[in-house]
Each structure stands twice: as C-alpha cells, then as structure tokens.
Amino acid sequence: MKKIVVIPGDGIGKEITDSAVEVLKKVDEKFNLDLEYEFHDAGGTAYDKFGEPLPAETLEACKKADAVLFGAVGGNKWDNVKAELRPERAILGLRKGLGLYANLRPVKVVDALVDNSPLKANLVKGVDLVIVRELVGGIYFGERCESEIKNGSERAWDLENYSVPEVERITKLAFETAKIRRGKLTSVDKANVLATSRLWRRTVTKLSENYSDVELNHLYVDNCAMQLCVNPKQFDVIVTGNLFGDILSDEAAVIGGSIGLMPSASIGEFTSLYEPIHGSAPDIAGKGIANPMGTILSAAMLLRYSLHEEEAAKAIENAVDKTLDDGFRTADIYSDGFKKLSTVETTQEICKRL
Ligand code: NAD
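# nicotinamide-adenine-dinucleotide complex -> structure
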C-alpha cells in the first residue's frame, strides 16, 4: 500500500481535497495503484482543536507517508491569534520538518481557457512551462537585522547566501525535470550585480556538463520577468532561487487565467507535498463553488513525482482538460455560453472522463 496523508486545512480546503481524493480513488480503480489515505489536521482547524497549527502527530504522519496532499490554511477567524500560532505557520513547519527544498509550479494554458488569460491569445496558446524554485535557502533564510543605528540613521538588512551544494541540489532536480519534458532549461539569476548569482551561474553551468541532452540558457531576472509577458512560450523549465522564484512563479501563475487551476509540488528529501497554489478562499468556503482543479492537478503531480505513476498522472490531466474542453466551468472561470457546475459536479465530470 502507498500511504497518502491528506491535510484538508481550512476554508475551502476540505471541499477541494475531498474532490482530489475522489479522483485518486477513481484512478486507483483503473491503474491498481493500491493507495490508502490518512487524514490529519493543520492550520486554524488544528489550532482550534489542539492549540497549535501543526500538531506533532500531523508532522510525524507526513514524515512516514509516501506523499502529502495539502488543501489550504488560514482565514479571518484567526486574525488575532499570536504570530507564532497563526494557521499559515503550519506551512513553514511542514517545509522545515519535511525538508521541502524545491517548489515546482507548472503553468499550462489549456486551449479551452486561452481567453481567460490577461495576455493576448496568440501569446498564451500552447504555453507549457514549469518553474523550479529553491525553497529553503537564500535571502528568506539568511541572517537579518530588523533595526540598527549606523552613522546616525536607522537601517535594516537581510543577507542572501547560497552554497554550491544547495545550488547543485535544486539544479539537478531542474535538469531531471527538463529531461522528461522538452529538454530546455533556463536558469534565472542577477549575475550582473550579485555575488550569490555569479556562484549560482557557475554552479549551474558546471552541472550542465552532465546533461548534454538538455539545452541550457541563462537569463537575468528582470529580463525573465519581461519575457514571461512577451513570449512565455519560449520556456520549458525555469530554475531559480527562493526570492526570484517567489515573484516569478506568481507572475507566471496569472498567465493561466485562474489561480483555482494551478497545482504545485514541494519536493523533499524523503516525503513531498502537493497543494494548489491558492489559499483557503474564506469568501467562498462552504458554498460548494470552489474550483477543485488545482488540487486535482496537484494529485496528478503526486502520482508523477512521488509514486512514479506517469500514466495515471497523465490520465487525470487529460480528464481535466477534456472537462474544460466540453464546456464545464466552476464559477471562477465561468462566462456566458458555458455550463456552470459546483465543486462536486465538476469532480464527477472529471471522474466520468477517467
Ligand atoms: P486566496 O487564494 O484564498 O483567494 C483569493 C481569491 O481567489 C478569492 O476571491 C477566492 O475566492 C479566489 N479563489 C481562490 N481559490 C479558489 C478556488 N479554488 N476556486 C475559486 N476561487 C478561488 O487568497 P487570499 O484571499 O489572499 O487568502 C485567504 C487565506 O488563505 C489567508 O488566510 C491566507 O493567508 C491564506 N493562504 C493560504 C495559502 C496556503 O495554504 N498555501 C496560500 C495563500 C494564502
């Protein structure tokens, strides 16, 4: 048996993870994957029950699992909770506890949704890229000073640093990802200004000697931000550090037209975690109208990266594409002429197409 820990979390978390589990059960029937599920609390729901956003029991279960499927956490209800106990702390705790060193965010614009993109149809039709972001290093985890007086003025600082092994680990994953895709890797840095970026570039270039089947190019981050708007189709896999990846992955996500559709994977040394990129959407929680596709596509990534079940992963992705092609839409992507469905109905349509 392969054990999947499911963490619904808060807000729409339960609705969307229920959908993804239903789809996984359906795909399991077809491909004999032998999956079993264990449900655990995190976020505000866990705070209400146990007084902490990430109970030790949840983290332990995740460590023992073959993979983790995560919904979303957070909501206004916990706005006045102490910073260290807020629901979102569960995400940082999981990242640290599971050693999630890489975040993979695919952006695939399906033909049926080309008109939902803020970019012109001719620019986005056919976009299919993945951003691989380093997740546990760089300036977000460097030394910092909140406030000091120097030469009579108050200042603050944050230190960016990367080691060769850190860059090698994320770059290897990016090369491997490119190898099973279209064989093109773009490394993004700011090597014209930053020493950490020059070390990043040297390390990536050296590693490329082991991957003659992958074509490598380098872009400065400002140029990459621009290229994502003017010619996103040029990209296959993009690899970059924590800060640049945070910004570029949000920029790239909007190209797809709706955050409800976007999946992600956070890869760990042992266990990896899969979740949609959106939050807990408290404004629509409990209404049964959330788009479950981001979570369902995250479940497909789980099958691909943690269980190496490529055929089953592809089957889910095709079923989602087909549901959209056939004109079914949740409220967030609905427009005149399409068929509007609830979360549960959307899930059923996807299951039918499996
Ligand atoms: P959000 O992503 O939850 O919602 C932004 C907007 O998108 C809302 O209008 C929401 O209704 C809509 N939306 C999001 N997902 C949708 C879906 N699947 N289907 C249809 N519509 C969808 O972002 P927010 O409002 O800034 O944050 C709400 C809470 O979520 C906050 O507490 C925030 O801290 C938390 N959050 C959690 C995560 C996470 O768990 N990984 C990520 C981001 C935000």
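# post-check
The pocket of nicotinamide-adenine-dinucleotide is lined by residues 12, 72-75, 88, 91, 259-260, 275, 278-284, 290-291, 294, 332 (CB under 6 Å).
The longest strand covers residues 100-108.
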